[in-house]
Amino acid sequence: MTTPAPEPGTVAAPAREPVVEMAGITVEFPGVRALDGVDLRLFPGEVHALMGENGAGKSTLIKALTGVNPVAAGEILVAGEPRRFTGPADAREHGISTVYQEVNLCENLTVAENIMLGSEPRRLGGLDWRSMRRQAREHLARMGLRIDPASSLGSHSLAVQQLVAICRATVVDARVLILDEPTSSLDTDEVAQLFRVVRSLRDDGVAILFVSHFLDQVYEIADRMTVLRNGRLVAERRTAELPQRELVSMMIGRSMELLEEVDRAHDAAPERPADAVPYLQAVGLGRRGSVEPFDLELYEGEVVGLAGLLGSGRTELARLLYGADRADVGETRVKGTATRLRSPRTALAHDVVYLSEDRKGEGVVGDLTVRENMILGLQAARGWMRPLPRRQVDEIVEKYIKALGIRPANPEALLKNLSGGNQQKVLLARWLATAPRLLLLDEPTRGIDVGAKAEIMKLVAELAADGMSVVFISAELEEVLRLSHRIAVMRDRRKVAEIDGGQDVGTDDVIELIASGGEAR
Amino acid sequence: MDVAIAQRPVRLDRRYLPVVGTLVVLGLMLTVGGTRYDNFLSPAVLSNLLINNAHLLVLAVGMTFVILTGGIDLSVGAVLALSSVVTASLLQAGWPAAVVLPLAVLVGSVIGLAMGVMVHVFGVQPFVATLAGMFFARGLCFLIAPESIPIRDEAFVSLASLSLYSGPWRVTAGVLVALVVVALAWWVLHLTQLGRTVYAIGGSEQSALLMGLHVARTKVLVYVISGTCAGIAGLQFAMFSRSGYALTGVAMELDAIAAVVIGGTLLTGGTGFVLGSALGVLVLGLIQTIITFEGTLSSWWTKIVIGVLLLVFVVLQRALSLRKT
Amino acid sequence: MSARVGTVVKHHLFWPLAALVALLVACTIKRPAFLRVSVLDDHLFGAPIDILRNSAPLLLVALGMTLVIATRGIDLSVGAVVAIAGAVALTFIASSPDPDSLGTVVGAIFVALGLCLVLGVWNGFLVSVLGIQPIIATLILMTAGRGIAMLITGGMITTVNSPPFKTLGSGFWLGLPVAALVAYGVFVVVAVVVRRTALGMLLEAVGINPAASRLSGVRARTLVWTVYAASGLFAGLAGLIFASNTMAADANNAGLFIELDAILAVVIGGTALSGGKFNLSGTLAGVLVITTLSLTVTVLGVSPLVTPLFKALVVIAVTLLQSPALRARLRRRRPGSPAPRVEQPAENPAQEVHA
């Protein structure tokens, strides 16, 4: 691949030669091609946004660059030289630093160590703690961060930890700085502060690769964008030449059409009789440091969407309803009867089930088979002494493999070997097999491919139509809007509004509610 | 605009709390012992406390390194025995002490290296790898010498009987070695990149890797350090007992682990101090001393008291870590 | 290597059984009559019967250990519990007016097993309720336990003479040693219960992913608590067999290192210490390997004191052969074999070990 001829008179691209040039990158995992012939160019003095949905291959591409994921095919040029890094340390030595989505620092070490280790000042053959603290303080000050370098990292908020991680990346003479969703846990002020740092680094000639889900932020900071979808390159454009609408359609692509089908299920909104008793009702339910007290009524046959940003308390609310965390105030009523849901087992006994957002950590039992995973919920409810009869197990498993289109259709496959979407379907089957009345779905569509996404959403709509009560949580507002009959809006660990869903409610309305904290309507 | 963070109240950093706990227990024991028994706080008794526990001090230092990375080393008692047996049998065979001493230490290092490679390269759990190391070293002891071998080598004996007096205080070569090892360990853990990498691995191995620290090298090295410490401790024990015997140090790894835990180091790795472990050894030694002074108490109370102390410390640490989250 | 041989070699029982066969072959070469079983006084005699009988206590302890390890735990205290069980039973019998009566012996057994169950429950409490790491939680009893045993025996090696109690360790029934019948009986019952009910699957679920299990409504805490209690109980039974074998309660040496042997047996049997999937058949094979190994060492004329060395070699060999890292290395070096699988995505190189 050759470098395109420099356009004369380009203002925002001061340097002509890309500092990083990846071409035809292909990455394969067992059974999955995660990246297929993707190109990426990073120019010095530019902020480059890497865009795409969950599962589009953004993280994989970053890991391919830094040598975490092995590259099956393709070429990586750094400053014109072909390179294959052996890992982040190697990449860092060649001027490519990465700040990851989860803070990858050591909480048990001090802030100073987290910033300086690897390039620490020495004295008499040992670490020079005093200079280390001083230098760390200087680096922090440059970012406008005034914290004690001698304090342990774990004593600071996630946002501060994130900034410390970026500070660490700037200590070495980074030519390329990769920021993988650095803003997901930051508030507005902190984002502004981060952007100031990013801009000053850019002006120093650093090439910055920026990954974020927040479109506004991307348009605010990025000079250029690369869009990925399903492991393939869609386009590389200058930000100024790419309207938001076009970007979104590039990112979402096919799923828009597939989602159309869901609308039909949604149109049939249930007629609720005036004297209907909610299946589950939360009255002033809350937990200190988790969710402020809220009221919520969940009726049968209704999908209630929870909208809000990451960390707005969506998950925490669902966990309280399920008894996964214990509420310290308020009460829950099942069909009008006050019932304390103290643990998942009590919730299950009342036919309430919860599909966790953390599929890997709280859902998948990887070393068990598809069959065992599917019947786990049902079997747990029966207790260990009364195993499900084999015939019944086979019936359940066969039914759900077929109904949900689980691939491979092999009940004896270990769940860890299935793709994310199929794992999610198995977990759904685990709950559906228990014949629940209330389904709490926390990000059921996260990180799975578009086809499976649409299938799951269709299923949810159908279940509600059959009389099940559903709580649907998703970061994708589109999805929440399409599925929900009612939408509870969350912000800052508080339920700030509740609106009826329907055709006339758009994403802008909900965004407005989130932004204003519920005072718009 | 600055992000103002005022999260650090002016009080004791909670990282030091467990060690302070150990210090309090130690002080309490000294006070109780001092008031209950005559001569308890005499220089002779306190000197002996160090002399009798010098080898355990060195073992606990090595163990601290391993535990800080989140591992464990069950082999140290057996390696200690092996080192003492190798020393005694080679000296008996007429080898010069100047050759034998480094060789005995090296035996420990090599076994440590083998275990480190098993753990890191082959992904064997530390528990299993060091268990194999323990059986290996113990079996080797018996293969070399099933019986106790007395040490009569002049150079060695004169080194072993070396005592420095400062008034009524007495310090043996073994104690000096232990103090040097503790100081060296403190220096490595707190003032070198290796030491900080040990902590980083215990905090989060993945993060340490992504931070570009030398995780592989360090993970192997901590077992080498622990093995080396066990080798040194074997020499100390040989000096102390003037013999090498295959059955020495049985279950001594438990004492070392107990000392480290009582010293405030978490078995999950990442938090703890080598000086805490040294305090832990002194606490264990004092329990023994108090029970000896008590006279009427049978020796098995030592074990029970250590168990109870372990329980108290572990439950307190658990409560502390729960309050944090 | 043909595909079928490949599957056989990959089976979790292959290496432990291969080790067992190798040991037996070595013994038979040295002593051709090694495997012969003869009938004497209506009893079966011979090395295989010895192996069965000698393996009884270890089998019981390893059985409990397997279940504990399946839940991501470990029980270091079993050796101490073995000592306590012997101390309690023999002290009970020695202090009774009629050591020969069956009633006394049954009473002693009940008291000893009851106490051991309590000790197991204690371990389970520390682990499942207080959330203390299993290794340290059981280390407490491991340290204090022998002290408690000595407290019970008063520091003496208590010896008694009680024929009914002696039967447990050295008696025969239907021509077979009672100790073996008891241990293998318990083993079979537990194995059947675990696999015929949903217990095995639920234990594995808890071991593989405790958080997911809890959210799925599995009584994770109760299950974990139960396995520690069971481990204590089985260790107690093993302690009784030990004590009955020697008719002496040696608080210092009874069951010394049996926790380590048990863990070895579990590991040799292919159950990973990281929890989850477990197989009792593997544990049985591991127990037989370790017991046979001790016998082989004597048959080969090596001092039994050197046995640990051979144990170490077996463990190193078996764990390395089971190590995925070594397998991957060997595969890479062999050009004729099928292409190496693409490396797993290294998203989480530092898999958490202890939750």
Can you give a write-up of this model?
The complex is a heterotrimer of chains A (521), B (325) and C (355). With 521 residues, chain A is of the alpha/beta class. In chain A, 36% of the residues lie in helices and 24% in strands. In chain A, strand 4 and strand 5 form a beta hairpin. In chain A, helix 13 packs across helix 14 (390-404). Chain B is 72% helix and 4% strand. Chain C has one domain: ABC transporter involved in vitamin B12 uptake, BtuC, CATH 1.10.3470. In chain C, the strands form 3 sheets. A two-stranded antiparallel sheet of chain C has the order 1-2. In chain C, strands 3-6 form a two-stranded antiparallel ribbon. The two termini of chain C are 39 Å apart. Mean pLDDT of chain C is 86; it is low at 335-355. Chains in contact: A-B, A-C, B-C.
What are the salient characteristics of this protein?
heterotrimer; A: 521 residues; alpha/beta; Rossmann fold; 6-stranded mixed sheet; 24% strand; B: mainly alpha; two-stranded antiparallel sheet
